[in-house]
Amino acid sequence: MSLSIRNQIPGTITSVTAGEAMSTVKVRLAGGQDITAAITTDAVKELGFAEGTSVKALVKSTEVSLATGPVEGISIRNQLAGTVTDVVTGGAMGSVKVSVEGGELTAAITKDAVEALDLTAGSSVVALIKSTEISLSV
Question: Closest by alpha carbon to 13, among 40, 35, 45?
Fold first, then answer.
């Protein structure tokens, strides 16, 4: 299956915590960083997700936020440290590519944010992703 989602990072499930409707799935990415995905319990069962299952974490670029350092006092637990490799801006929006251990992410953010954060190739950033915005594929 081909997808328009460019952010696809391989990893391995390290734990599944099932709830009635939603479950949290912890994934160790290929580079060693951990993320948590919140997906339906039905999807966990249907896809056979269990500890040790190899998956790809999928995230739309519009769901990746960037900060210039770790953020405290926020509910977003998925904070991946990385380095900006490329920045392209247009009239209103920007596309920022970030190299993280084990993969690459693209963040679609406003041109104003690119300028305010002074993002250029080589900048250190932290990619912020809500667990509800991460999908998993086998």
Answer: 35
CA distance 31 to 133: 20
Contact 10, 54 (CB under 8 A): yes
55-83 per-position pLDDT tens digit: 999 999 999 999 999 999 999 989 999 99
Bridge partner list, 66: 127
Residue with tokens 């951990």: 34
Write out the two tokens for 93.
Answer: 């929006």
SS (H, E, C) 10-27: EEEEEEEEECCCEEEEEE
